[in-house]
Amino acid sequence: MGCYLIIFVIGPFCSKAQENLKFDDNFNLWNIQKGQSATVFATKAYVRAQPSLKAAIVDSLSVGNVVTITSAPFKGNTLKNFYAPWHQISYFEGSIKKSGFIWLGLLALGKQTASDGSQYIYGFERFTKSINEQEQDHFSTVVKLLDAKGNFLAEHTFPFAYSEQTFSQSKLLPAMGLQNVKQIIRIEFLGEACGIPSEYNYVAWTGQRLVDLPSRYSVSDAGVFYYDEKILFPSEHGKNNQIIYKYIEEGEAIDDDAENPNFKITKKSEEFLWNGNSFEKLSTAK
């Protein structure tokens, strides 16, 4: 029972309401350093004369604009229910180089560019605190798709229950054998310490809209327990159907050998049918 209690307390299913979430100025999910480029995530991002909400607005940038980080972080502010620092930036408007300060939460966590030049940009819209035990504290995470000219095509929102993950990255995948799918973006929030979960979210582009696919999740505490989910798409399992398989394995230590513990292992699976526009769960775990 111990491992399941730990999962409940530290994992994304924790229902305890938090205060406004605060990211560390230097170590956070953006992992942006001085000299690196970053992409604007917000529809309109204000550039200010100083690193403060009280400072004058000197310019505004649009989603997809690229900036260069030119400073270490400055003490931040809380917007959209979460705290993040400010950075000084530089950017070009035509041939004119400009500079100012931007709040980190207005920048994308990541971006993927397809072969046709279209861009998948993702970031946090806001942090939402739970109002009852049935809900989770979560970030409304948004994927925005722009065409090669920077025109808006679509967006999709999914919840991410932040549990002290330290790193985010993404990968652009092909259709993976799913009908009516152009591309899939996999967005990862990774835990790099014991007991910190890693989440993998999949969003498909059908050519008309962005839609959810089944997600997967893993967490472990060395020598105590592990929980791992794997997903196989049609092009991976080769069964010539439109079913997405999720395989789940749980292990709970049954002795006190810290070096080579023996685990009680439980395996189960779930199946999801893709109909060309959305998926439905076909079976419960078995």
Task: Give a written overview of the molecule.
The chain is mainly beta. The chain has one domain (2-29, 109-283). Helix content is 5%, strand content 51%. It is built from two helices and 21 strands. It has helices spanning 2-10, 234-237, and strands spanning 21-22, 37-39, 44-48, 57-62, 66-69, 74-79, 82-93, 96-103, 110-113, 119-128, 138-146, 152-160, 167-173, 183-190, 198-205, 210-212, 216-221, 225-232, 243-253, 263-274, 279-283. Strands 13, 14, 15, 16, 17, 18, 19, 20 and 21 form a nine-stranded antiparallel β-sheet that branches. Strands 1, 2, 5, 6, 7 and 8 form a six-stranded mixed β-sheet that branches. Strands 9-10-11-12 form a four-stranded antiparallel β-sheet, with no helix packed on it. This is SH3 domain-containing protein.
Annotate the secondary structure layout.
Elements lengths: L1 H9 L10 E2 L14 E3 L4 E5 L8 E6 L3 E4 L4 E6 L2 E12 L2 E8 L6 E4 L5 E10 L9 E9 L5 E9 L6 E7 L9 E8 L7 E8 L4 E3 L3 E6 L3 E8 L1 H4 L5 E11 L9 E12 L4 E5 L3
Parallel strand pairs: 1-7
Antiparallel strand pairs: 2-5, 3-4, 5-7, 6-7, 7-8, 9-10, 10-11, 11-12, 13-14, 14-15, 15-16, 15-17, 17-18, 18-19, 19-20, 20-21
